[in-house]
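Table S2 (text version). Query chain:
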Amino acid sequence: MALPIETILDERHRIAQDAFRNRDAAAYEALFSPRLAYTQANGETIGRDTLMRDVREQFARLKHMTSEFAREALAMGDSGRDDEVTETLTQTATTGTSAFGFIHRRWHILRRGHYIWAREDGDWRLIRVQVLSETVRGSWRYGF
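Corresponding structure-token output:
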């Protein structure tokens, strides 16, 4: 018997969270289709190569990263296709870096969007992302 799609996608999200936390760019990239179209909150659409270049830069620059997703809705693809599914998710993430051991900068991100998954070569991968809203708040802290 096949696993429910929610269970499969929950595992994909766990892989994404682990890859993000461990700065494992290869594991993170494997979640995205080569044909990815990622539409950012500003309306600009980028592909997987550009997204991964940005992610690698973040992994190199940031000291602390966490990310969590909450599923709001789940819908099977057009005409009931079982090889494509759309999630509406809210992502909360926290990232941070330090300089000289006592200057600390932290960012809190709240992002909501549509995440379209398709089955490719036996795995579920993101083929499209449409960020509907994004809020980024920054803060500073000084001290050891």
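Notes on Table S2: The radius of gyration is 16 Å. Residues 109 and 131 are 12 Å apart (CA to CA).
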